Structure formats: C-alpha cells, structure tokens
Amino acid sequence: MIKPLWIRGVRRALLAAGATAALAAGVLTATATPSQAATQGPCDIYAAGNTPCVAAHSTTRALYGAYNGPLYQVKRASDNATKDIGLLSAGGYADAAQQDSFCANTSCVITVIYDQSPKGNHLTQAPGGGAAGGPDNLANAVEAPVTVGGHKAYGVYVAPGTGYRNNNTNGIATGDQPEGMYAIFNGKHFNGGCCFDYGNAETNNLDTGNGHMEALYFGNSKGWGWGSGNGPWVMADLENGLFSGVNRGFNANDPSVDNRFLTAMLKGGPNQWAIRGGDAQSGGLSTYYNGIRPTVSGYNPMHKEGAIILGIGGDNSKWAQGTFYEGVMTQGYPSDATENAVQANITAAGYNSGSTSTGSLTPGSRISLQATTSPCCTSHYLRHNDADTKVVISNITSASSATDKADATWIVRAGLANTSCLSFESADKPGQFLRHFNYQLNLNFDDGGGAFAKDATFCPTTGNSGVGTSFQSFNFRTKYIRHYNYTAYIAGNGGTNTWDSTTSWAQDTSWLIASPWS
Asked: What is the pLDDT of residues 296-341, one digit of tens each?
C-alpha cells in the first residue's frame, strides 16, 4: 500500500498574466523543502486558469514549480527492493543517477508513477479486466531514455501487455463533469492495437457502455475512427469507440502526427469536447476537433467513472504499445489560452532523444551488428528487408541509402522473456523485434505473448570465434544468431538443417557491436 505523501497545505503565489515564472502551486512531501525561487510548471499554469490539476504524472520532471517529492518508484530484480526516484532540485528534472545506481548490475521495473498533485492519484500495476487477464506487466525502467533540459531521464515504455491503473481516485471528473488532460508521447512508438490510452476510465475494469471513458488515445487503429493519412492519430477513447471527430469514422481535420515528442490534448464538458496536438519540442498547438459530443446514444450526457489508466483500454484491452513521459488531468474545462501556455512550457522544458549510449549493449542504446566472417562478409551488417519480414546481412557503407542504414540499425532492449538477456527492436519500425520462427530470423510486432517474448530474447556471450559477441537463443540454448548464405537464422554447430553447417560456424555466429548506421 502506498502511504500518503502529501501535506495538504498548498501555497500559491501567482504573478500577473504574461509572467514567465512564479512561486507556483507547490505540492510538498512531508520531508520536502520548499523552493525559494521555483519556476512555473504546467500545473501552475492550469491553476492560474482556474482548472487545477487533479492528477499529474511524470517520470522525467516536476510538473509544479515547487514540487520536490518522488516522481516514480522502481523495483530491482536482484532482491525485489524498491526505491523512489526523485528530483535534482525542487521544480526540476528527474535524478536518473539514483535509478542507475540502484539498478546497476540488475534490471528494474517501474512499480509506481506518483501523482504530484495534492489528490494522491498514483498509478500502479493494472489488474485484469473484461478484455484480458492480469495483473498487467510493469514497464522496464531503462527502455525509454531521454534528456530533458540537458538532464538524463527515463520515460515509461509500454510494450503490449503493460498497463497502469488507479480505480480509487480523488477529484477526477465523473458523469458529465468537465475535465482536461494532456500527455507527452513518443510519436514514433505506436501500433494499431487497442488501446494506448491515458485518462479517465471505468472503475471496475469492464466495458460499462458508451460514454463511460474519456481518455487520450495514440496509435493507428482504424477500428472505430481515424484521421487523414496513414496515422498515427491523436483520438479520444470514449468507450466503444475511438473518436477523431463528432462520430465514429473519418475526420479529415485529424492529421497523422509522428513527432518524436508529441503533445496530445483532450478536454470535455457538457456537449462539448476538443482534441488538440503539437510538437512537444517546438511550436504551438493545432485543433483537430472542437464541437459537440457524438450523436450516438450514450455520449451526451457522458457517464465518466473517474478511474485513471495508462497504456491500456478501460476494460484492460492491453495489445497496444507506446511511450509516456508526462501527463496531467484537470478539474474543469481548460481554455485554449491556458493550453497554449502549457504547450509553451512543454517546449521550453527541452525534451530530446537520449539513448544511454550508442554502440554498446546497454538497453536503450542504438547499435548495428557487423559480421566477422572473412573474407566474404566483414562489410556486411544484420538488417531487415523492406519487402518482407526476413532478416539478412548485406553490405552497408557510408554511401548506402538512408533506408538501408536505418534497416541495419537496432535499439537494444532488456530481454522480453528475461531481463538479464537482450531483445533487439528495429530503429525504423518501432515495436517490431528481431525474433526467430522456424529457426529463421524475422522482424515482427511484439504481440505481448510469452512465446513471442522467448523467440525474441537472446543472451550475449563471448564471441564463439574469440572475436566480438555471440547471441544465444533464449529458448534454444544450443543455437546462436548466425548468417548463412546471407540469410539470418538461429543455428547450432552441426545439425539436420543446412544452416547448422559446421563450416565457419564460429565466425558466422560472432558479431561486432558497431556504432549505429542511423
């Protein structure tokens, strides 16, 4: 059980309109020290607009200028110990070094995402629901490294099967009460599964009918509604429908958006709602829809229940993927002017891509895998085909096309089946992983299942030839990633398959960890 963190007293000192800093609506822990010159956070801006935050979640930074409590909690695999990860300073950025030190030589998952508002609406492991069993998986703590304001931090990497929830909230809108919300997502990490959501949902983990949810959705599902282009889109999950406009179906004004850091906004009140979005690194917001509630029965008035979800649908539909960095929910319907000021605060925060390293096997690092077999293949790299799902090796040089270079670049992830091992996500096809099927290597979407996780997990060992690194299949321990006839397999040193040939097996299964081509 999470003990209450907050002293209820909240001090506000708001400057006149147009000021760039304020001693903001701070929320202090029992041991926190108030900031003497705190900068303004998104929740201070919402408070000044008379729509205060009732939930404020972030693993990267403080969302109030005076906040000095924990952002999230991690649990390490080695001994199941937990640690709260706090800030470098009040109102500032995550102290990622705390996590790195605590999780050194083991793996960690994110167990709690703390609510920075006075309401105490923390997010924890989601239980099972009507659509899928549970409890859901917890996010690996190192899978989404970024920098914010030049400081290292980690987001929440949601793979299929991962989800967070709070069914017993305080102050979240119910019924037809007005509310607003925003989230910052990775616009490159998505799929068409249901449903990568953040927002208001059912309190019993079941689909209780039209209008019982109001949550931000991000992905390229076309099952209910969609926008222009091929997606992904920011839409509203209002239960039994993803809405890009007034009703289910096509809304030409809802554009495909894939900014590396994406601001997504949703607000709803009596017979009124809107979707807005923008680049979280620069520029303003665009309005994708602003109008009446859906005319289908059940959505006017709304029947919101007030739970909070992250990464899943209201009935625990958990087949989607995405990455979350920060988000809030408000009491009341924010004005466009307030939201525009929040967007300016977000762009000033300084989000940037932040792999922990390149050319190393640290989770989050980008790498390319270079073959070592001489004389045929020392300029060849492991890459996926664009025409099909097959994984091969081919010659990649500085003169190669940008597409070829991207196809030969991988993001190292903690092993899907065992975090002591590794998985490899395509850098240019987020959510698709290197996995073996019938011993041949392919690039496929993570479906959240245990069989896929095992097929996509490889354990690094000293190179079988004495050079570089070899990668042992997690579920076929005598087989390693090998190139044979320029095609990639898992192969044993001798066997009934042609690719198990003993000829040059040790070299073919040894790889150099190279700097990423893309």
From this structure: 999 999 999 999 999 999 999 999 999 999 999 999 999 999 999 9
- Summarize pLDDT for 57-112 with one digit per residue, the tens: 999 999 999 999 999 999 999 999 999 999 999 999 999 999 999 998 888 999 99
Tokens standing for 149?
A: 């304001």
Helix (H, G, I), strand (E, B) or coil at 274: strand
What are the catalytic residues?
A: 239, 315
> Which amino acid appears at position 272 of this protein?
Q
Task: Write the CB contacts of 163 (distance below 8 Å, at least 6 apart in sequence).
Answer: 125, 126, 134, 136, 137, 309, 310, 311, 312, 316, 318
3-state secondary structure of 298: coil
Tell me how far apart the terminal alpha carbons of the chain are, to the nearest angstrom.
44
The Cα–Cα gap between 107 and 75 comes to 8
The residues, ordered by sequence, that sit 6+ positions from 375 with a Cβ below 8 Å of its Cβ are none
Any idea what the Cα angle at residue 98 is, between residues 425 and 150, rounded to 5°?
70
Residue/partner pairs of 396-401 with CB below 8 Å, 24 or more apart: 396/368, 396/517, 400/517
DSSP sequence for 358-397: BSS-STT-EEEEEE--TTT-TTEEEEE-SSSSBEEEEE--
Beta strands 124-125 and 164-166 are antiparallel
Q: What Cα–Cα distance (Å) separates residue 281 from each residue in 95, 148, 186, 215, 518?
A: 21, 10, 12, 23, 21
